[in-house]
């Protein structure tokens, strides 16, 4: 059974959630405004940090000028490791700058020094241990902003440093060579359609954990919330991010080819690839090349991960990706992870009857959430967005990507998620189920439960399975 602390917090959580849901039902929002909201005032927000202070750098991007849709990028520090050298071509010696990111303050020196030119990059950066950092003149601190050997011209960021304006970017900017390509994971947060945020403290902590464990770039999607924007707004936002990822990959390839054409042209003129990036920005306007994804993202190894109602979005995006096929190139969805999906149906399952009044999210409150998400004229517990087992829901299940389902013992939605996984296995889709004993809904993502051993174990279990489909070396069954 869950601990006494969890039970008490569940009572308090359900009281607040019920109060907020009832207020939203009584307050009719303006449905004519498609811009919407992706976060609530009561959410505790974690600020983005483009430095590898704790092993993961983050940045926020508003990708749609017509809606509030945004993403937060989580780039793990492992992206800075050099790619594995080819035996036929020995690697060029690399110059190491400051020994550790986590021991430096944001004003630390960013470029190489002559004294450190003989040092090599370590094969693995550790998050423990201290090094003595030599004192640096304050004037030199202001002229530098990156601790990983980048130049001072902000190459690849489409930013212009102006000393007069005081614009000095101190975050990570990709170097001009030796990019390490990493898989990309789209993460959809939970919150019952009406709450939650991609930049909340809890979601930020969870995405950092997943980025480090799975060794992937995580794109946390800030989709529009209900009731300001009802179905299918959140689903369309998820699909829009997938297409945006493909657009970014194509723009990056275009800028790369343009840069190579310019540098190889006659007349003795030399152009940097950053100039090609700026050319694309100037020509296409808002279609800007995102430097972190251009340098490190591999969209051909894309994974979807959804939490609670976010799992419903992930499943929808996976179905649309199957239907799109090669139209999504170079993006390819190779797997999806559904963490305690927000499934429901008109015919109750055994768990829906036995655990209807379970911890944190009971069935009555979840039905209220569905009423806020679905339009009144199309409300049904067997809506395709709610029940994965209804017929004619999309492409044949045999075409679906491998699907890992995570369920909790004390979650009333568990049986329907397990039934969906069984349907996938019947058509030979790799669809295992991880069930956690004495666990509750959102046991691995709720703020007060994030640091429990069970939440940590869940993240590690997910990473083991995901690496089967994103590893370039084949199946990996170890940490």
List the helices and strands and how they pair.
Blueprint: H1 4-26, E1 56-62, E2 70-76, H2 138-142, E3 182-188, H3 201-214, E4 217-222, H4 233-263, H5 273-284, H6 291-296, E5 297-307, H7 309-324, E6 333-339, H8 350-354, H9 363-373, E7 403-408, H10 414-426, E8 433-436, H11 453-470
Parallel strand pairs: 3-4, 3-5, 5-6, 6-7, 7-8
Antiparallel strand pairs: 1-2, 2-4
Structural overview:
This protein has 479 residues and is an alpha/beta fold. The protein has eleven helices and eight strands. It has helices at 4-26, 138-142, 201-214, 233-263, 273-284, 291-296, 309-324, 350-354, 363-373, 414-426, 453-470; strands at residues 56-62, 70-76, 182-188, 217-222, 297-307, 333-339, 403-408, 433-436. It has an eight-stranded mixed sheet, sandwiched between helices. Strand 7, helix 10 (414-426) and strand 8 form a beta-alpha-beta unit. Helix 1 (4-26) packs parallel to helix 9 (363-373), helix 4 packs across helix 5 and helix 4 (233-263) crosses helix 7. The radius of gyration is 24 Å and the shape is globular. The two termini are 29 Å apart.
Summary tags:
about 475 residues; about 10% strand; 11 helices; eight-stranded mixed beta sheet; single chain; alpha/beta
- Average pLDDT number: 80
Helicity, in percent?
A: 25-40%
Number of strands: 8
Query: What class would the helix/strand composition place it in?
Result: alpha/beta
- Approximately what portion of the residues adopt beta-strand conformation? 5-15%
Unreliable stretches covering 5 or more consecutive residues: 85-165, 261-279
Shape: globular
How many helices in DSSP terms?
A: 11
The largest pleated sheet is described as: 8 strands, mixed
């Amino acid at each position: 059974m869950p601990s006494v602390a969890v039970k008490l917090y569940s009572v308090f959580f359900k009281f607040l959630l019920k109060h907020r849901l009832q207020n939203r039902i009584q307050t009719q929002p303006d449905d004519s405004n498609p811009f919407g909201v992706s976060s609530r005032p009561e959410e505790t927000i974690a600020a983005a940090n483009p430095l590898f202070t704790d092993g993961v750098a983050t940045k926020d991007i508003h990708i749609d000028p017509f809606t509030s849709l945004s993403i937060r990028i989580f780039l793990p520090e492992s992206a800075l490791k050099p790619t594995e050298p080819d035996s036929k071509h020995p690697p060029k010696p690399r110059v190491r700058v400051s020994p550790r990111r986590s021991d430096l303050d944001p004003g630390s020196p960013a470029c190489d020094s002559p004294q450190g030119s003989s040092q090599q990059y370590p094969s693995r950066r550790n998050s423990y241990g201290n090094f003595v950092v030599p004192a640096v003149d304050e004037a030199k601190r202001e002229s530098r902003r990156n601790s990983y050997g980048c130049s001072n011209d902000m190459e690849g960021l489409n930013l212009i440093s102006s000393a007069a304006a005081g614009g000095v970017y101190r975050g990570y900017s990709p170097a001009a060579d030796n990019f390490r390509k990493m898989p990309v994971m789209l993460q959809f947060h939970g919150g019952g359609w009406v709450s939650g945020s991609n930049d909340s403290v809890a979601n930020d902590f969870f995405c950092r954990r997943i980025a480090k464990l799975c060794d992937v770039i995580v794109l946390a999607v800030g989709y529009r919330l209900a009731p300001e924007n009802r179905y299918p707004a959140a689903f369309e936002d998820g699909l829009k991010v997938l297409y945006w990822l493909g657009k970014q990959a194509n723009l990056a390839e275009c800028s790369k080819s343009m840069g190579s054409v310019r540098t190889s042209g006659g007349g003795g003129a030399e152009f940097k690839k950053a100039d090609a990036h700026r050319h694309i920005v100037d020509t296409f306007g808002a279609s800007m090349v995102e430097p972190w994804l251009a340098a490190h993202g591999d969209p051909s190894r894309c994974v979807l991960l959804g939490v609670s109602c976010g799992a419903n979005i992930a499943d929808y995006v996976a179905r649309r990706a199957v239907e799109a096929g090669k139209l999504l190139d170079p993006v390819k969805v190779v797997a999806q992870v559904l963490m305690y999906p927000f499934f429901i149906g008109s015919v109750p399952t055994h768990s829906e009857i036995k655990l209807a009044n379970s911890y944190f999210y009971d069935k009555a409150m979840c039905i209220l959430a569905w009423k806020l998400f679905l339009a009144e004229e199309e409300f049904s517990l067997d809506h395709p967005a709610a029940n994965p087992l209804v017929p004619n829901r999309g492409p044949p299940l045999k075409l679906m990507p491998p699907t890992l389902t995570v369920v909790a013992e004390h979650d009333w939605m568990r049986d329907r998620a397990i039934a969906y996984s069984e349907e996938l296995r019947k058509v030979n889709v790799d669809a295992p189920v991880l069930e956690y004993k004495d666990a509750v809904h959102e046991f691995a993502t709720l703020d007060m439960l994030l640091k429990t051993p069970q939440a940590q174990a869940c993240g590690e279990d997910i990473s083991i399975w995901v690496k089967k489909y994103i590893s370039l070396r084949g199946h990996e069954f170890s940490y």
